Backbone:
């Protein structure tokens, strides 16, 4: 029974992700999501009482997946630059491999439908990144910019690189693009 519940919830979230990225929030009805998920509309409302609840749940889940991907294989002994580069690499690779999720985060990161509560809860998943940036500022490895600004620029830079990779022809060396993108970010942050 629990597996069936998980499967239906997952199907609804996957359908919502697909449709929200294709059609936007207003262009997607709960009936369309139900149909795409192959569940009754009443079933959708059992899991998510409103469309706003659904989009907030989806946002929380996708952003959580992203934070886990970013922190993967983050070694405690590496230099600050090594750690930041690992996070960058993980973020880019996740974005290229999970295009709908990456597009969804980009589309809805400033959406008025994502509640303040959801945003605050999601940010708890990114404490490791805030701590790393604070460490870099404290040790003098990067310039003393506001940590939130550094993280925002880092994320926006990653969006540019993911889009560049996805829009480029297949002859582009993705690892070189990833490295070049990191060097642009690093040179803007590093103390001279």
Residues:
């Amino acid at each position: 029974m629990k597996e069936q519940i998980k499967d239906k919830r997952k199907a609804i979230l996957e359908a919502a992700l697909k449709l929200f990225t294709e059609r936007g929030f207003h262009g997607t009805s709960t009936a369309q999501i139900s149909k795409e998920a192959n569940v009754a509309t009443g079933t959708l409302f059992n899991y998510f009482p409103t469309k706003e609840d659904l989009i907030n749940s989806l946002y929380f889940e996708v952003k959580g997946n992203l934070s886990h991907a970013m922190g993967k294989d983050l070694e405690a002994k590496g230099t600050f630059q090594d750690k930041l580069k690992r996070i960058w690499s993980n973020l880019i690779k996740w974005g290229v491999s999970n295009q709908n999720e990456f597009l969804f985060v980009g589309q809805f990161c400033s959406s008025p439908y994502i509640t303040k509560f959801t945003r605050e809860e999601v940010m708890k998943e990114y404490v490791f990144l805030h701590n790393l940036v604070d460490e870099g500022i404290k040790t003098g490895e990067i310039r003393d910019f506001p940590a939130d600004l550094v993280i925002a620029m880092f994320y926006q830079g990653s969006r540019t690189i993911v889009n560049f990779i996805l829009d480029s022809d297949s002859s582009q060396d993705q690892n070189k693009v990833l490295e070049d993108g990191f060097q642009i970010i690093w040179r803007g942050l590093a103390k001279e």
Remarks:
- The CA atoms of residues 161 and 167 lie 10 Å apart.
- The chain has two domains: 1-49, 52-189.
- Residues 52-189 form a domain with the Tetracycline Repressor; domain 2 fold (CATH 1.10.357.10).
- The chain is about 75% helix and 0% strand.
